[in-house]
Amino acid sequence: MALIDQEFVCLTIFRWCMQQVNANHAGKDEQAAVKVWDRFLRFFHWTLVLCFATAFISGEVHLSEIHVLVGYVLCVLLAARLFWGFKGSEYARFRAFIFPVSEAIEYLRSMLKGNPKHYYGHNPAGALMVFTLFGLLAAIFVSGLLTLGTIDFEGPLVFLANRVTDESSYAFRHVHEFLPNVALALVVLHLLGVLVGSIQHKENLVRAMITGKKSPPKQSSSSSQNDKEES
Protein backbone atom coordinates (compact mmCIF):
# COMPACT_ATOMS: atom_id res chain seq x y z
CA MET A 1 0.00 0.00 0.00
CA ALA A 2 2.87 2.33 0.87
CA LEU A 3 4.48 1.50 -2.47
CA ILE A 4 1.31 2.50 -4.30
CA ASP A 5 1.21 5.78 -2.39
CA GLN A 6 4.84 6.50 -3.30
CA GLU A 7 4.15 5.79 -6.97
CA PHE A 8 1.13 8.10 -6.84
CA VAL A 9 3.17 10.89 -5.26
CA CYS A 10 5.97 10.47 -7.80
CA LEU A 11 3.51 10.47 -10.68
CA THR A 12 1.84 13.61 -9.33
CA ILE A 13 5.20 15.38 -8.99
CA PHE A 14 6.20 14.30 -12.52
CA ARG A 15 2.94 15.65 -13.99
CA TRP A 16 3.39 18.94 -12.13
CA CYS A 17 6.95 19.26 -13.48
CA MET A 18 5.78 18.60 -17.03
CA GLN A 19 3.06 21.23 -16.66
CA GLN A 20 5.64 23.76 -15.52
CA VAL A 21 7.90 22.93 -18.46
CA ASN A 22 5.04 23.30 -20.93
CA ALA A 23 4.00 26.56 -19.30
CA ASN A 24 7.55 27.90 -19.57
CA HIS A 25 7.76 26.93 -23.24
CA ALA A 26 4.40 28.58 -23.91
CA GLY A 27 5.56 31.70 -22.11
CA LYS A 28 8.74 31.84 -24.18
CA ASP A 29 6.79 31.36 -27.42
CA GLU A 30 4.35 34.08 -26.41
CA GLN A 31 7.24 36.38 -25.55
CA ALA A 32 8.99 35.63 -28.84
CA ALA A 33 5.87 36.35 -30.89
CA VAL A 34 5.77 39.80 -32.48
CA LYS A 35 2.56 41.85 -32.45
CA VAL A 36 2.04 42.80 -36.09
CA TRP A 37 -1.62 43.36 -36.89
CA ASP A 38 -3.53 45.65 -34.52
CA ARG A 39 -7.20 45.21 -33.60
CA PHE A 40 -8.54 47.67 -36.12
CA LEU A 41 -6.58 46.07 -38.96
CA ARG A 42 -7.91 42.63 -38.09
CA PHE A 43 -11.44 44.00 -37.74
CA PHE A 44 -11.08 45.73 -41.12
CA HIS A 45 -9.74 42.62 -42.83
CA TRP A 46 -12.43 40.18 -41.72
CA THR A 47 -15.27 42.71 -42.02
CA LEU A 48 -14.10 43.48 -45.56
CA VAL A 49 -14.17 39.77 -46.40
CA LEU A 50 -17.71 39.39 -45.04
CA CYS A 51 -19.05 42.57 -46.64
CA PHE A 52 -17.46 41.92 -50.03
CA ALA A 53 -18.96 38.42 -50.13
CA THR A 54 -22.35 39.81 -49.13
CA ALA A 55 -22.19 42.59 -51.72
CA PHE A 56 -21.11 40.19 -54.47
CA ILE A 57 -23.85 37.65 -53.73
CA SER A 58 -26.58 40.26 -53.24
CA GLY A 59 -25.62 41.83 -56.56
CA GLU A 60 -25.81 38.49 -58.33
CA VAL A 61 -29.28 37.66 -56.94
CA HIS A 62 -30.52 41.25 -57.34
CA LEU A 63 -31.13 42.09 -53.68
CA SER A 64 -30.73 45.79 -54.31
CA GLU A 65 -31.42 47.14 -50.83
CA ILE A 66 -28.88 44.84 -49.18
CA HIS A 67 -26.38 45.48 -51.96
CA VAL A 68 -26.60 49.25 -51.58
CA LEU A 69 -26.46 49.13 -47.78
CA VAL A 70 -23.39 46.89 -47.74
CA GLY A 71 -21.82 49.08 -50.41
CA TYR A 72 -22.06 52.09 -48.10
CA VAL A 73 -20.49 50.06 -45.28
CA LEU A 74 -17.62 49.11 -47.58
CA CYS A 75 -17.07 52.75 -48.52
CA VAL A 76 -16.78 53.67 -44.84
CA LEU A 77 -14.45 50.74 -44.21
CA LEU A 78 -12.10 51.75 -47.02
CA ALA A 79 -12.08 55.38 -45.88
CA ALA A 80 -11.24 54.27 -42.32
CA ARG A 81 -8.43 52.02 -43.61
CA LEU A 82 -6.95 54.86 -45.65
CA PHE A 83 -6.94 57.02 -42.52
CA TRP A 84 -5.36 54.18 -40.53
CA GLY A 85 -2.69 53.90 -43.19
CA PHE A 86 -1.31 57.24 -41.98
CA LYS A 87 -2.27 57.27 -38.30
CA GLY A 88 -2.33 53.59 -37.37
CA SER A 89 0.20 51.27 -35.76
CA GLU A 90 3.66 50.54 -37.20
CA TYR A 91 2.80 47.73 -39.58
CA ALA A 92 -0.55 49.24 -40.59
CA ARG A 93 1.00 52.41 -42.01
CA PHE A 94 1.51 52.60 -45.75
CA ARG A 95 5.12 53.71 -45.31
CA ALA A 96 5.84 50.30 -43.73
CA PHE A 97 5.08 48.44 -46.96
CA ILE A 98 6.05 50.75 -49.79
CA PHE A 99 8.91 48.99 -51.55
CA PRO A 100 11.10 49.85 -54.54
CA VAL A 101 10.14 48.04 -57.74
CA SER A 102 13.50 46.26 -57.72
CA GLU A 103 12.82 44.81 -54.27
CA ALA A 104 9.38 43.61 -55.34
CA ILE A 105 10.82 41.89 -58.41
CA GLU A 106 13.57 40.29 -56.35
CA TYR A 107 11.03 39.02 -53.85
CA LEU A 108 8.90 37.44 -56.58
CA ARG A 109 12.01 35.75 -57.98
CA SER A 110 12.94 34.42 -54.55
CA MET A 111 9.39 33.07 -54.14
CA LEU A 112 9.77 31.08 -57.34
CA LYS A 113 13.06 29.71 -56.02
CA GLY A 114 11.40 28.76 -52.75
CA ASN A 115 13.50 30.92 -50.42
CA PRO A 116 11.88 34.35 -50.06
CA LYS A 117 13.01 36.81 -47.40
CA HIS A 118 10.86 36.95 -44.28
CA TYR A 119 8.91 40.12 -43.45
CA TYR A 120 6.92 40.64 -40.28
CA GLY A 121 4.53 43.03 -42.02
CA HIS A 122 3.46 42.93 -45.65
CA ASN A 123 6.06 41.52 -48.00
CA PRO A 124 6.54 43.25 -51.39
CA ALA A 125 4.16 40.87 -53.18
CA GLY A 126 1.53 41.26 -50.48
CA ALA A 127 1.95 45.05 -50.49
CA LEU A 128 1.42 45.14 -54.25
CA MET A 129 -1.78 43.12 -53.83
CA VAL A 130 -3.01 45.42 -51.05
CA PHE A 131 -2.58 48.59 -53.10
CA THR A 132 -4.10 46.94 -56.18
CA LEU A 133 -7.16 45.81 -54.22
CA PHE A 134 -7.56 49.23 -52.61
CA GLY A 135 -7.51 50.92 -56.00
CA LEU A 136 -9.92 48.36 -57.43
CA LEU A 137 -12.30 48.70 -54.49
CA ALA A 138 -12.27 52.48 -54.87
CA ALA A 139 -13.16 52.09 -58.56
CA ILE A 140 -15.99 49.69 -57.67
CA PHE A 141 -17.40 52.08 -55.09
CA VAL A 142 -17.21 55.12 -57.37
CA SER A 143 -18.82 53.27 -60.28
CA GLY A 144 -21.50 51.98 -57.91
CA LEU A 145 -22.30 55.45 -56.60
CA LEU A 146 -22.40 56.77 -60.17
CA THR A 147 -24.78 53.98 -61.17
CA LEU A 148 -26.95 54.63 -58.13
CA GLY A 149 -27.10 58.34 -58.83
CA THR A 150 -27.55 58.39 -62.61
CA ILE A 151 -29.80 55.35 -63.08
CA ASP A 152 -31.62 54.84 -59.78
CA PHE A 153 -31.68 58.56 -58.88
CA GLU A 154 -30.42 57.88 -55.37
CA GLY A 155 -27.35 58.45 -53.29
CA PRO A 156 -24.84 61.30 -52.89
CA LEU A 157 -24.21 61.60 -56.65
CA VAL A 158 -27.85 61.99 -57.65
CA PHE A 159 -27.11 65.56 -58.74
CA LEU A 160 -25.32 64.06 -61.77
CA ALA A 161 -28.51 62.35 -63.01
CA ASN A 162 -29.39 65.10 -65.49
CA ARG A 163 -25.80 65.98 -66.33
CA VAL A 164 -24.62 62.79 -68.00
CA THR A 165 -25.90 60.94 -71.03
CA ASP A 166 -27.75 57.65 -70.90
CA GLU A 167 -24.77 55.98 -72.58
CA SER A 168 -22.50 57.19 -69.80
CA SER A 169 -24.93 56.01 -67.12
CA TYR A 170 -25.07 52.49 -68.52
CA ALA A 171 -21.32 52.51 -69.00
CA PHE A 172 -20.98 53.17 -65.26
CA ARG A 173 -23.23 50.20 -64.57
CA HIS A 174 -21.29 47.89 -66.88
CA VAL A 175 -18.04 48.90 -65.19
CA HIS A 176 -19.58 48.33 -61.77
CA GLU A 177 -20.76 44.86 -62.79
CA PHE A 178 -17.42 43.90 -64.34
CA LEU A 179 -14.93 45.07 -61.70
CA PRO A 180 -16.11 42.75 -58.88
CA ASN A 181 -15.20 39.79 -61.11
CA VAL A 182 -11.67 41.19 -61.42
CA ALA A 183 -11.59 41.64 -57.64
CA LEU A 184 -12.71 38.04 -57.16
CA ALA A 185 -9.83 36.84 -59.36
CA LEU A 186 -7.39 38.92 -57.29
CA VAL A 187 -8.82 37.45 -54.10
CA VAL A 188 -8.05 33.97 -55.43
CA LEU A 189 -4.48 35.07 -56.18
CA HIS A 190 -4.27 36.58 -52.70
CA LEU A 191 -5.36 33.31 -51.09
CA LEU A 192 -2.83 31.43 -53.19
CA GLY A 193 -0.13 33.84 -52.04
CA VAL A 194 -1.15 33.34 -48.41
CA LEU A 195 -0.94 29.57 -48.87
CA VAL A 196 2.49 29.71 -50.54
CA GLY A 197 3.79 32.20 -47.98
CA SER A 198 2.57 30.04 -45.08
CA ILE A 199 4.36 27.02 -46.52
CA GLN A 200 7.61 28.77 -47.45
CA HIS A 201 7.95 30.68 -44.17
CA LYS A 202 6.51 27.85 -42.06
CA GLU A 203 3.98 30.16 -40.41
CA ASN A 204 0.20 30.30 -40.32
CA LEU A 205 -0.66 33.63 -41.93
CA VAL A 206 -4.39 33.15 -41.44
CA ARG A 207 -3.93 32.60 -37.71
CA ALA A 208 -1.67 35.66 -37.59
CA MET A 209 -4.51 37.77 -38.99
CA ILE A 210 -6.73 36.41 -36.20
CA THR A 211 -4.34 36.71 -33.25
CA GLY A 212 -2.38 39.67 -34.64
CA LYS A 213 0.93 37.98 -33.83
CA LYS A 214 3.69 36.38 -35.87
CA SER A 215 6.49 34.18 -34.63
CA PRO A 216 10.09 34.86 -35.68
CA PRO A 217 11.29 32.80 -38.65
CA LYS A 218 13.13 29.60 -37.82
CA GLN A 219 16.52 31.21 -38.43
CA SER A 220 19.17 32.90 -36.35
CA SER A 221 18.00 35.65 -34.03
CA SER A 222 20.17 38.20 -35.83
CA SER A 223 18.49 37.58 -39.17
CA SER A 224 15.08 37.78 -37.53
CA GLN A 225 15.94 41.12 -36.02
CA ASN A 226 17.14 42.40 -39.39
CA ASP A 227 13.86 41.36 -40.94
CA LYS A 228 11.97 43.20 -38.26
CA GLU A 229 13.96 46.37 -38.75
CA GLU A 230 13.68 46.27 -42.52
CA SER A 231 9.96 45.40 -42.72
H and E order: HEHHHHHHEH
Oligomerization state = single chain
| Tally of contiguous helical segments | 8
Total strands: the figure is 2
Report the C-alpha radius of gyration, rounded.
25 Å
Biggest β-sheet: strands ordered side by side in the sheet:
1-2
What is the structural class? Answer: mainly alpha
| Helicity level | over 70%
Largest sheet: 2 strands, antiparallel
Shape annotation: elongated
Q: Measure the end-to-end span.
A: 63 Å
Which features does this protein show?
231 residues; single chain; disordered C terminus; mainly alpha
Blueprint of the fold:
Elements: H1 2-32, E1 34-35, H2 39-60, H3 64-87, H4 101-113, H5 124-150, H6 166-201, H7 205-211, E2 213-214, H8 221-230
Antiparallel strand pairs: 1-2
Helix pairs in contact: 2-3, 3-5, 5-6
Explain what this protein looks like in three dimensions.
The chain is an all-alpha fold. It has eight helices and two strands. A two-stranded antiparallel ribbon has the order 1-2. It is elongated, with a radius of gyration of 25 Å. The N and C termini lie far apart (about 65 Å).
Could you write a compact summary of the structure shown?
The chain has eight helices and two strands, in the order αβααααααβα.
